[in-house]
Each structure stands twice: as C-alpha cells, then as structure tokens.
Design a protein that fits this description.
The structure is a single chain. This protein is of the alpha/beta class and 579 residues long. It has three domains: 125 residues, Elongation Factor Tu (Ef-tu), domain 3; 272 residues, 3-Layer(aba) Sandwich (Rossmann fold), CATH 3.40.50.300; 91 residues, no CATH class. It has 18 helices and 21 strands. α14 links the parallel β17 and β18. α7 crosses α9 and α13 runs parallel beside α14. Pfam families: DUF87 (PF01935).
C-alpha cells in the first residue's frame, strides 16, 4: 500500500517559486518553520497523480517585505524555505509499489503542497530506498540524527556487492560502527566473513554466537605447540607466491639480485616437483606452477642453494677447477633466508611443525578460515588477530589470507560459490596509496586491487576500514560504491568523501568535521540518499575505547605493570593473567 497518505492539515507550506531543480515554498505557520532543519527531507506534490517529489532543505529564510496595501508604512514577514529536488517517488510503477528514482520526471506546480518527511513515514521511505523488507534480518545500524523516531536501513546486498568504506578520525566511533555491522551479520545463519584485526580490538566479539576468534601464531604459541584446534593459525612459507618469497629472501639492492631470483625460482619449482613425486600426485605434476600451493622442503632448498653457491667446475687446464657461474653470488640470499627461518617472530611461517607440511593441511586451513558454519565446524565470521605479526611483513601476510579467499572463490564452480566479505581494519597499513607505498607493499596492493576490480564476479566483497581515507589506495577506494563516514577533521580526508557526493547534495560534506561521536554520514548504492545516522551501541563493544587520561591519572597503578611489560616484550607475547 502507498506509504504517503498526507492530510491537508499536515501541509508545511505551498510552492511559490520553481527553478529547474530548486523550489521555494512559503511557510505560513511560524511554529512549523521552527521545526524545520537544513538537510531534512520533504515531500512535494507532483503535477502527475500517484507521484511525489522528494526534496532536501537547503536554506531557511525569513524576510521582511514592504506592503503598499497596508495603511501605514509597515513590513510583512515572509517565511521561506529553499528546497533542492533530488528524486521522484511513485506509488506504483508497473507491478511495483512504492518506487523511488533519482531522477526528476516533473517539477511541482505553483501552490503545490509541501509536507515534512519524518517519523514513521521517514522509516517507511528509507526502507523503500534501501529495498529492505519490514521483516527478517534487515540491516539497520541506528536512527536518523535529525529524526530520532525514524529507523535507518541500509541495503545489505548492495553494501557488500559493490564494496564499502568505513572511515573516521580516531575516537569518532569507527570501530563501534564496524562492530554493529558485524553483530548483525552474525545473525545470518550462513554468513561468511573474515575480519582482519590488526590490534586484537575485536576479540571481545567472539562471545557472540557465529563469531570465532583466531590469532596468527606468536612466539609463545610456537613454544606451547598450539595449533588450529586452539584457534592459532600458521601461515606456512609455501603458501606465499613466488613474488612474495622473492621479496622476503632477495635483497633487491644486491647486484646479484637478478641471479638470485632466477635461481630461487628454479629451485623452488624443483622442490615442489620433488614433493609431488614423493606423494605420487601424477595429475597435479602435469599442471602445477611455481605459484601452486604445494609444500616443499625449505631445509632441502637451503642445502641446494649452498651447493650452487660453492660449486666448482672443471677449468681450462687439466685437473684444475674454477668457480661455477653462481659461486659466491647467493651468499647474501642464503644468509637472509637463514635469519628469517631462525627468527621466532616469523615462527608462524617457518616453525609450524610437521602438520603444516602435509598435503591436506591447506584443506584444513581453508575450511577453518573460509568455510561457513556447519555442524562441528567453525563459525561463519572469523576474526583473525595479526597483532603479533612484524610490521615489515604485515602487508604480505594479510594479503596472503585475502589471496587465499579470492583464489578459493575463483576456482570454485560458479553454481557452488558462497559469497565472502573481507573486513579490512586499519587498511591504510597494507592497502596504502601508491605515493606512500614501498616495494614490500606492492604485492599486497596487487592482490587487493584485483579483488576490488574482480571480486564481485566471484562473490568476494571488500569492506575497507581506515581513519585516513586519503592514505588508502586510490584504485581500491574508487571501486567502493558505499561510504560510511564518521567525523573527519583532516581536509584531505574530507575531500575524498565530498567528491563522491552529487553536486546537488554537496552541502552534506560540510558536516563531516562536526559529526558527533557515533554519528555517520552514509553515502552510496546501499542508501540512495546520503543519510546522517546515529549508530546504535553494539551489544559487545570492541576493545578500542579511548582512555580517559585525566581520570586514570587519579587512580593508583599496578606496581608490577612495567616488569610484566618488559617480560612480555622480551617474549614477544602478551600474557594475560586472570584475577
């Protein structure tokens, strides 16, 4: 049934001026004028039956006009409201009811009535434009700031189909908003998502049903031999692509870097071939490449590299030898590789034990991180904590999980694909703008750029989360069709969002620096109209609350905190002791 059923007494005013997409209405009742606010929505009668025009209040004015008909020289007051027309609402279009279009098929006539769009009517209208039904698990993150009685809805399909960005300055409520969305995702029985958690702040959410927490193995986990059963993940070196392995093992500044890259490519392929031969995997042997996810013996590779590095070959003179072509040219690479293997911070790559060298181990990892919730299996939403991964290889490891997800989707039959969303917290650290990136970021950028461009075809969605949108890769950002922007105080960050707004809605961008904590400006395909929303508090808040300095400085501290911090630093692991 139609959602607009206004009565004459609800009229705000009448149209007195029409200029293409701008309308002026006169508000006769001063009390009604006081209720109006800039950026609120209104409904105007169209010249066509069963059709309305939706407008946005741009300016409120009160003018004094000299009236010659008055007996004395007096001025009469005129209450005016400037409205920008932004779309057309139809009670029916073909077989569809309640349809909104971001086009203007008509303009209102002079003396046409104008009504406020608020309360239940606003809620119903926003359901229409977000294509959310009144029942089931519709995606709703809060109420509208300018009308707290109206519920805000977002089109969940379009939010994830066309990628999204969640951003805001520190303390603006970015993590709170992310947690609220995750909380609603968890209500969907077959949800499939991975949250890249760089600081462990989303760990408290594991208490919610259908959410599970994992961490990349740290030094203490390796010592205690924890594994997937303990929700500790090892990401073995053999999962890295050839480019990633070269970036880790070869120093590009070395004059022998080209030779080293060539040798390691040849020997890694030989090592993978040897592994497949030992397992009698004849079919895979016919088609594998150096980038195929196949285990290989790193110890054997090191032995081979040392042999090549010290190789002597027959010389020109009898019984004399000379150095081989690569004698001494692999020394720096071998030393670099040995240091990586012995580095306990990188134990999750090189010290996973015998289990991770099994051929079926990849199946186990994929089912754990990418599988949906099934009987006796892991939850649908997986929080992966990267807080103990060294910062210099963080982009490689995060992008490896992303590549794993994309590759599995790519090689799944289209009829069997189940969509997966990747929530990329602190994205500027591993999806940086190319102007701020270095060589170690290039591999990560290639993977995320490809997912941004092609992910929709394979059911892979990106939700990019950052406090600095201006520092996030432009290619990835350009593929995001939905933006949830919290308070942004930096001019460069504000401009990123403002450029996304249509010209007739540009005024919305001016509120970015004055948004309250927990307020968001939602723009994009998931919400046809930019909306200012006050986000609900999530049931479980992430561990990212701002510390109250002044209050904390009035409370006595734990005298053992510094000693325990130093011990944790040395162990490269935070030990939480329950009291």
């Amino acid at each position: 049934m139609p959602i607009f059923n206004y009565q004459d007494h609800e009229t705000l005013g009448k149209v007195i001026s029409v200029d293409t997409g701008v309308v002026i209405i006169e508000v006769s009742d001063l009390e009604k004028l006081k209720r109006l606010q800039v950026n609120r929505l209104v409904v105007l009668q169209s010249s066509k039956a069963e059709q309305y025009l939706i407008g946005l209040i741009q300016k409120l004015m009160r003018k004094k006009i000299f009236d010659e008909e008055l007996e004395e020289e007096e001025f009469k007051e005129e209450n005016l409201c400037k409205i920008t027309l932004i779309g057309t609402f139809k009670n029916r279009e073909g077989t569809q009811e309640n349809v909104f279009r971001r086009t203007l098929e008509t303009v209102p006539e002079i003396d046409a009535n104008c009504f406020a769009l608020e309360d239940d009517k606003l809620t119903s209208f926003m359901r229409v434009i977000s294509q959310s039904s009144g029942e089931g698990n519709a995606l709703s993150i809060g109420n509208y700031t300018l009308d707290e009685n109206a519920r805000a809805y977002i089109n969940g399909n379009k939010l994830f189909q066309r990628h999204a960005f969640i951003g805001g300055s520190t303390g603006s409520g970015k993590s709170w908003t992310t947690a609220k969305i995750i909380e609603q995702m968890a209500q969907l029985e077959n949800v499939n998502s991975i949250i890249f958690d760089l600081h462990g702040e989303y760990k408290p959410l594991q208490s919610i049903d259908n959410i599970e927490y994992f961490k990349i193995a740290g030094p203490s986990d390796i010592e205690q031999e924890k594994g997937i059963e303990d929700n500790v993940l090892y990401i073995p070196y053999w999962l890295l692509s050839y480019e990633a392995l070269v970036s880790m093992f070869v120093d590009r500044s070395d004059q022998n870097a080209p030779n080293q890259s060539m040798i390691i490519a040849r020997e890694i392929r030989n090592a993978k071939e040897a592994y497949l031969t030992s397992k009698s995997e004849t079919e895979i042997l016919k088609n594998f490449t150096i980038d195929s996810p196949i285990p290989f013996d790193l110890g054997g590779l090191l032995t081979t590299l040392n042999v090549i590095n010290s190789e002597m070959v027959p010389g020109a003179a009898p019984r004399k030898e000379k150095m081989g072509d690569f004698n001494g040219k692999l020394s720096r690479m071998i030393s670099r590789l040995e240091n990586k293997i012995s580095d306990r911070r990188l134990g999750f790559l090189f010290q996973g034990g015998a289990d991770v060298m099994e051929f079926e181990w990849l199946n186990k990892l994929v089912k754990t991180t990418i599988g949906v919730k099934l009987e006796n299996e892991k939850a649908g939403i997986k929080i992966i904590d990267f807080s103990e991964v060294p910062s210099d290889i963080l982009p490689l490891i995060v992008s490896l999980i992303a590549r794993l997800s994309f590759s599995v989707q790519q090689w799944t039959e289209s009829s069997k694909r189940h969509p997966i969303a990747l929530l990329c917290d602190e994205a500027h650290l591993y999806i940086p703008d190319k102007n701020n990136s270095n060589s170690s970021d290039e591999i990560s950028l290639k993977i995320f750029e490809r997912i941004a461009k092609e992910g929709r075809k394979y059911g892979v969605s990106l939700v990019v989360i950052s406090q600095r949108p201006s520092e996030v890769n432009r290619t990835v950002l350009s593929q995001c069709s939905n933006f949830i922007a919290m308070r942004l105080t930096n001019t460069d960050d504000q401009m990123v969002i403002k450029k996304l707004l249509p010209d007739n809605l540009g005024g919305f961008g001016d509120i970015l620096p004055i948004l309250d904590t927990g307020e968001a400006l939602v723009v994009g395909d998931a919400s046809l109209l930019p909306s200012r929303i006050r986000v609900d508090k999530p049931t479980i808040t992430p561990d990212s609350g701002t510390i109250e300095f002044w209050d904390e400085w009035q409370i006595a501290t734990d005298p053992t905190r510094l000693d325990s911090a130093i011990e944790n630093w040395r162990k490269q692991s935070i030990q939480v002791i329950s009291v």
